[in-house]
Design goal:
about 0% strand; about 120 residues
Length: about 120
């Protein structure tokens, strides 16, 4: 059971890096052409928040049975789950298209790095 959860935790981490990078490219392009963030981007961003929460729940189960190599691994996960919704609510609804695109794209790039660092410290 633990080996299976560990496998899914690792694989979901890699998938989240790729997903965050893809959203980062999408948001960066929207910012570069001064285009409004699409509803598809927003829903994908919210999906990434949800998948990050699932990743965190798997991590919580694993941390009760095993210990990560470094405590910093847990810090990266906690950062991602707090940072993503915070940026979403901060950037949205302000009426400035470029600002919203920049904030959400930047958040995607930042958490892609955090996910990668989390895998390195896991």
């Amino acid at each position: 059971m633990i080996a299976t959860l560990n496998y899914f935790h690792f694989r979901l981490g890699i998938a989240l890096i790729l997903f965050a990078a893809a959203l980062g490219v999408w948001g960066t392009i929207a910012f570069a052409v001064r285009k409004r963030i699409s509803p598809g981007f927003r829903s994908s961003y919210v999906l990434m928040i949800g998948l990050t929460a699932v990743q965190g729940l798997i991590g919580l189960v694993l941390i009760t049975t095993t210990h990560p190599r470094e405590l910093l691994h847990v810090v990266y996960g906690a950062f991602a789950i707090l940072f993503l919704p915070g940026v979403y609510f901060y950037a949205g609804g302000r009426g400035n298209r470029a600002r919203e695109a920049a904030f959400l794209a930047g958040a995607c790039w930042i958490v892609a790095i955090a996910y990668g660092r989390g895998i390195m410290t896991g």
